[in-house]
Structure formats: C-alpha cells, structure tokens
Specification:
The structure is a homodimer of 230-residue chains. Chain A is an all-alpha fold and 230 residues long. Chain A has a domain of 140 residues: Tetracycline Repressor, domain 2 (Orthogonal Bundle), CATH 1.10.357. Chain A contains 9 helices and no strands. The longest helix of chain A has 27 residues. The relative contact order of chain A is 0.11. Chains A and B meet through helix 8 and helix 9 of A and helix 8 and helix 9 of B. The first copy, chain A, binds a DNA duplex (18 and 18 nucleotides) through helix 1 and helix 3.
DNA sequence: GTCTATACTAGGATAGAC
DNA sequence: GTCTATCCTAGTATAGAC
C-alpha cells in the first residue's frame, strides 16, 4: 500500500492511475527499448534485466508498470503489429478513390515493408517472433496477424477480381509468399545497402506483377492443379 | 543420393568409443526428434526434458551422446541445413548439362522448398531458427547459411549474366526476397491445402520470372535508383 | 516510482549407482 | 548406456525500504 493502491482492484492489467507524465514517459521508454531488444534478440534472448538496463532501471522496477514479462512482451508485439497495420491501411486509404487495385496492393506492400524496416522495431519484432512464441503469448498475436493477413487477402482478391492478377493462381499461397518475403527482409536488410527500404518494397511489387525475367511470359508453369485459391 | 555423411571425424565432440549399433541408433533417434521439436517449437521452446521424453529417455541421459544442449541443437540445425543444401545441389546437378540458367534456378528453388516442407524437419528448424539464436550457436549456422546463400547467388548471377533475368535489378535483394518467401513457407504451409509443396515452389518461380500480373509488363517500377548490386 | 534484497522455479548440467 | 538424484545458474517475480 506504499504504492497507494486504492483497493478498488485493478482489472486485468496493471495500469497506474496517477499518470504523472513522467511515469507514463518511463513506461513508454520501457516499451520502446523492449521493442528494439525483442527485434534484435528475439523473445527468448531478451531478459527482463536486459530491458531494465537498456531503459536505465532495474528488473524489479518493471513490475510497477507491467504484470509480467509476458504481458510486457505482448504489449510490445501487438502494439507494434497494430501500428504496422494501421500505417498500411492509412497509406492505402490515402490513395485517390479511383486508384487501381494494383496500385492499392503495391501501396500496401511498400508501406508495410518500409514501416517494419525503418519505422518500428516493435513491428519488426512481431513479424519475427510470431510462430516462435509460448502459447499463451502467441494467441493474441496470432489473432492480430490473421486480421492483418485478411486485409492483404482482400487486396489480393480485389486485384484478382478485376483482372489485375491472374485469378487462377492459389491466391493464399501467393499472398503468404509475399508476406514471407516482406517479413524476412528484417533478417538481411541493411540501410546502407544499394537498395533503400522503399526500393525493396518496389522490387517485391515487381516480383508479384511482372517478375524480373526477360523471356516471353509463361502464364502458368503447371497447366494442372493450380488450385482455385484461399 | 543426397546425404551420406560417413561419420568420419570426431574432433572436439564427445567421445566416440562405444558404437554399439544400438547406441548409434539412439543417438540418431534423439537427433530426429530434436529436429521435429525444434521445427515446431523453436529453440527457446524446446527443453532437454522435452527432447528426452520424445526420444523415450531422460534429460540426464542425453549427456552421454552430446556435450550440451547447444551442441545438440547445433548438430541438428547445421546437419538439417547442410542436407537441404546438398539436396538442392544434387537436384541442379542432375539436370542435363545444357539446361538453361533459368531452369537451373527454378530447379534449385523448387527443390529447396519441397525439401524443407516435406523432407526434413531439421532443415526447416534451421531456416526458422537462424537469426533467433544465441550468438555462440548462431555463428556456425550463419556460416552455413552464407554458403547456401552464395550458391543461390551464383544461380541468380548466372541467370542475369545470360539475360534470363533483368541484370539491372539489385540481385542480392531479389535473392533474399525469394529465400525469405521460401523459408517463411514453414509458417503457413499445410500439406492438405490446395497447393502441394511442389506447387508452392513453382508459384515462387513464377513470381520471380513472370509475376502473376496480367497487365503489360512494366520493366522497372522506378526508373531511378535501381542499384547495380553486389 | 524506483531501489535493494531475496524468494522461487525451470532447466541445464554433473555424479554415481546399476 | 541409461537411470536417479542432485547441484547450480539464470531469470522471473515479490517484499519492503526509501
């Protein structure tokens, strides 16, 4: 009760009432450095002591702001992923109303790539960690990723529907290949390379629509069994 | 025809005296189940107790066969990755000598995808774990991945050199996008889906060379700054 | 709000019986 | 070779001073 815990019990979260702006700042700072550490070292490689040190505090002190390591990680990962999704949606929504389905998909992809590569370590951490997390933590993140995936699915389907991409391909597989390529960029991209994040996004778009081959187009490598899609 | 590692050397590893064929069998069994667990739960999510139980033994007993958890994991991950590389090389080498550079690249990609998806949990585990591992373990695996990456780089460069793919693109970026898409398949591919592993590999090849767009080809989305690459 | 000190646990590793 | 028992460390989490 030193902490002035008004015995009206806290809900699920910790969440401090006071909100001395300094306190909220600290909390944000913790989330920020946690995002960076999670992005570079992964969930398993990041201890509370690591986070605390990077945030200029001590492991025990983190419990004033968060209930547990898992809750902290969940907040970082889901907020990062949500930020990426919001950013991507906003970029698409900013297009003129008559933008083509191709343009919309291209915009979403480049926005996503650019965002995870240069804007949000937390988003990158989410992309890297998904599928590598202990079950209780994995669930909420998976739900979010499914939502994000559904959004991309809409864009792909719209493009297929109005003929911008071949509607006979397995759209889900194509989408997953693209998402995989995008998320994997975190493993190799370096800002000082010959291509910027924007360039990488554009290149990925080119792979989707045109490829980088020079030969005459071969519509479908395998005439049979292409599947219908999702 | 692919892997036939003849147990030759045994340097800094554990002793090797016994070799009751039953003992070697046990060792292999441990490596096998470890591969499966690492592929599904990741390195951090797999304890020695998990591995021991799956192999029908006890945690302490593993130390008869391996020096440490890290060494065990390293052996699983590197041998899986090496097997994938050997398999891919063998598939390419099996092509007629006059096979086109495009055909060679396509063969490598489909072989790699099919191998990690349906042949080797350990290879899949390597692909998923790389970049998410504690430094001492990460190093040897990174070296292997670099070697494998170099092999793909050769195939891409050969294709660019004889005009099968646009030589003005950042080849390294293109290659990494492709590798990323391939390795990420582990996160979403299900054998009972509409596309087989083979289909997914083919689709990825199509993305590289032709794309799945229907419009007239736009050679380079961005006339400037395409970079020359490595 | 943040500190220090400490309890507690999971899991890696070792020893010795068999 | 494998088992059981145990040690030991790292790391999460709690308590209470300030």
């Amino acid at each position: 009760m030193v902490t002035a815990q008004p015995e009206g019990r806290e809900p699920a979260r910790k969440r401090r009432a006071p909100v001395t702006s300094r306190g909220e700042d600290k909390r944000r700072r913790i989330l920020e450095v946690a995002g960076e550490l999670l992005a570079t070292r992964g969930y398993a490689g990041t201890s509370l002591a690591d986070i605390a040190e990077a945030a200029g505090t001590h492991a025990g002190s983190l419990y004033y702001h968060f209930d547990s390591r898992e809750q902290l990680a969940e907040e970082v990962l889901t907020s990062g992923t949500r930020a990426a999704m919001d950013h991507t949606r906003a970029a698409v929504d900013a297009l003129p109303a008559n933008a083509s389905s191709r343009r919309r998909l291209e915009t979403a992809i480049t926005a996503h790539v650019a965002f995870i590569l240069e804007r949000s370590p937390a988003a990158l951490a989410g992309a890297r960690a998904v599928g590598q997390l202990p079950p209780p933590l994995a669930e909420p993140l998976h739900a979010l990723f499914r939502e994000y995936g559904d959004y991309f699915a809409e864009l792909f389907e719209a493009a297929a529907a109005d003929g911008a991409i071949d509607p006979t391909v397995d759209l889900r597989a194509a989408r997953m290949l693209v998402v995989g390529a995008a998320n994997w960029t975190a493993e190799w991209f370096r800002p000082d390379g010959p291509s910027s994040a924007e360039d990488v996004g554009q290149l990925l778009c080119r792979l989707i629509f045109d490829g980088i081959g020079t030969g005459r187009r071969r519509p479908a490598p395998r005439p049979t069994g292409a599947g219908e899609h999702r």
